[in-house]
Each structure stands twice: as structure tokens, then as C-alpha cells.
Amino acid sequence: MLYFCRMNTGKNFLCAILLLCFGVLQFVEAQTPEQNREKYDIFRKRFNDSFVYASGDAASQGAYIPVELRAVAANGAVTLYWADGTWWIGHYVAVLALEYARLRIENLPTDATLAELKQTLLTYRRLDLNAELCWNGAAEHNGFYMRDDIAGNMTNLFGATTIRSDYSSKCGDTTTRSNSPSQDQAWASYMGLALAKKLVNNPEIQQLVVETAEMFLKSMQHTDGKNETWEVVNPVTGVVAQKRGDIEWLRYAHASAFEFLADTVIKFGHAHYSFWKSAWNFLQNNFMIDKRGHFNWYGVMVLSTVMNEWGSGGRNIYDWLVNCGQKLAKKRPDLGQPIMFPHLPLVAVLLHGYNGNKMLPRDLYEDILNAAPREGASVQKVEGELVRTPAPWGSMSLFCPWHTQSVGEYNMLDYMLLYNAYRLVYSD
Questions:
Q1: Which end of the chain is more exposed for a tag (fewer CB within 10 A), N or C?
Q2: Contact 127, 86 (CB under 8 A)
Q3: Helix, strand or coil for residue 309?
Q4: Chain centroid to CA 416: how far?
């Protein structure tokens, strides 16, 4: 919604936009489940047309890595941005696993979704194999991966004028640590992998889930002689890409999430020592101390969801997630969120069930879905002011709602994930 209306000569079009926004809000109130399903189909086609290169072959460079931001200039020039590529792939996998389950329940064809899910999971393998090449090493499947492999000369392939990515700016610079693994890349991917494991009963998909989980775990495990440390070390340069101080406090959570995904107990680095479990529980109970919000909020809640382990004050993972999400929303009233990360309680139900009696009303989710504009969420700069689509769609995504300054169009994976999960949990 616009928060200003300039009456300067020649600028009255802003007021027209404002009136249009009010018209959109009136339309939102009258939306139906059928219209939200129609929006899903619109966003799905829009995503495949403009926000991903779905080549049909995961071995193709640049394939199946979602565009984070699409900015269109006044002259029609299109700039595409990739950052945290594997983080976004994790959400893409989650959408596909949920879509597959929903289509099965609706007795609709699932072959295309299953094939897309397979290729998206295989993308992790490509990023693992070729990462060392950026540091003049030999290609190797060893868990050390790139976040993306989008080259700057792929503009024609993506219908873009300019490409901005970690790969295009850093690959070949052997002094950099950019475009390498970090634990936040694993968080979102765990969620996608967990949903694929739970909802897609296909042997090939199940094997890829385990293989991908192993990739993420290996990337954070380093052995130096007799010492086992939780840190990311570049196997070509020997340089630490993410230091142990950032990861070791969550080693218990990483090991537990992997055990859910692969049904294998992890003993590396004494991950299950009572000290590390206590450290994780302390973090669960105190992560909301940060008032503004960052990836740690999301990381703790996603890990807890996959592990099915909650902090103090909760009787089950669902109620704990709802309680945390509501408290976080109060910390950031500027974001207009009724609950922060509304998809996570639904994911918890799908992964672990729910035996409580405090389910969120379905109206809460319908209101969020209704508010999504049919043209997709965006932040645009008009007359030097940032103009956002109505809350809670005024940021990059529901997955990282504090990103409110990135100007452009967003990929709407958040809507697709939320819609599918809502339908699976609340459908009659």
C-alpha cells in the first residue's frame, strides 16, 4: 500500500495508484478459495517463466536455482539477482514436495512435479561436484558446494540484461570465501528435504534426500589429524570459510536434523554430548533476545521444526512455534505480520502431527493468502520513495520478512509453500 500521495503537477498518477491499492484491498476481502488457487497457478507459471531455468537436466549450469530478485528498469532493462542460492533451493524443494502431496490428494497428475523435484534435488549434486573449480581445484563430490553457478554471460538464457550472482562476481577469485557453504544454507534445505522425505514415497527421491543431507553435514565437518571440528574449510585452499564459533553451538541440532533425514546417528565431534545439547536448548530459549530479526530467528525455528524438539514453555513443537511466531511479530509490528514464519507450524503438523487443541484458525491463513497481489509481491522506488505491496507481502518473502529494502519483484515461493501446506493441513 502507498503511504503517501503527492499532488504536484504531473504527479497525480501516484494518487491513482493509491486508489488502485484500495481497490485491491476491497478485492482481497471478497476472494474465494478458487481465486487463491488461481493465484497459485499464476505464481507457479510466473516462477517457471521468469524466476528459474528449469532445463529438464540438472547437469545444466545455472539450472533449478531460483532467482531471488527481478528488477525491471524504466527502459525495460532486466537485472536478475542470486544470493544464498542453496537456501532458496531448499524452499523450492519444499514447494515441490508439498505440491506433489496436494496433487495426489486432489487426484491430479503428479508426474511433472515429481520430475521437477528430482532435477531440483540433483542440482545440489552439481553444485557439490563443481565447487572446487572456482578455486582452481579438481571437481569432486566431497560436500563442499557452491551456492550458485549462474554465470554473467547467461543473460539470453534467463531473458535478462544483467546478472548479479556470487558465481559471476567471485568464481575464479581464489582469495575469496564467497559462494561457499555456511550453516544458514543448510537450515532451509533441511526443511525442504524433510518434506520430501515425509510426503514423497519414491525410492529415488528418498535416496537423493539422504545424499543431499550428507552433503550439508560433510560441508560443516573438518578433520585435522585427530581433531573433529564443526567448521567449513575450503578443501582446495585450506582457508576457513565459516569458523567453528559460528557452527559448533548448533552441532547438536545439525546432527539431530540429519538423523531425522537419514535415519543415522551422528557421533562426529561429540555432537550429542550433554554440553552441546544444553547449549542448543539455551539457544532455543533465548534466540528471541534480538529485537530486529535476522536469519538466526529463522534458523533456530526451522531446525526445531525438523528435529521435533521445542524450547521451554511448549508442550509440542506446533504450539511452541506458534508462540514464538506471535512473539516475534510483536517485536516487528512494522512488518504487519499476524505471526512470523506462518508456514512453520503447518510444516510441523505435516512432519510430526499434532495432538493439541490450539490450532490456529484457518481464517488467519486465508487472510494472508487473500492479501497476496495477483501480480506478485514487489518493492518499487517511486519518486525516491519505496512503495511496497500490502503487508504481509511487503518484503522479499515470508521466510526473511526483514528484507524490505531490496527493490524489485519477488519469486513468490513463500505464497506457493504456504498455500500447499495450508491446503494439506486444513483441507476437508
A1: C
A2: yes
A3: coil
A4: 12
Q: Which residues pair with 71 in a beta bridge?
A: 79
- Let me know if residue 77 belongs to a domain: yes
| Residues of the domain holding 229 | 33-426
Given a contact cutoff of 8 angstroms between Cβ atoms, the answer to whether 363 and 377 are in contact is: no
- Collapsing DSSP to helix, strand or coil, 346 comes out as helix
State the Cα–Cα distance between residues 288 and 88, nearest whole angstrom. 24
Residue 347: inside a domain: yes
Q: Does residue 252 form part of some domain? A: yes
Burial of 182 (0-12, 13-18, 19+ CB in 10 A): buried
Give the total number of structural domains in the chain: 1
CA proximity to 234, closest of 248, 219, 224: 219
What is the DSSP code string of 90-157? HHHHHHHHHHHHHHHHTT---HHHHHHHHHHHHHHHHHHHHGGGGGT-----SS---S----TT-HHH
Span 351-372, pLDDT tens digits: 999 998 999 999 999 999 999 9
- What gap in Å lies between CA 327 and CA 320, rounded to an integer? 11
Residue 6: inside a domain: no
For the whole prediction, is pTM greater than 0.90?
Answer: yes
Compute the distance between CA of residue 74 and CA of residue 92 in angstroms, rounded to an integer: 30
Distance CA(79)–CA(83), nearest Å, equals 13
CB neighbour burial string for 299-311, b if at least 16 within 10 angstroms, e if fewer? bbbbbbbbbbbbb
Q: Which residues contact 4 (CB under 8 A, 6 or more apart)?
A: 14, 385
Query: Residue 77 carries which side chain, given as an amino acid letter?
Result: A
- CATH (domain of 144): 1.50.10
For residue range 57-111, list pLDDT tens digits in order: 999 999 999 999 999 999 999 999 999 999 999 999 999 999 999 999 999 999 9
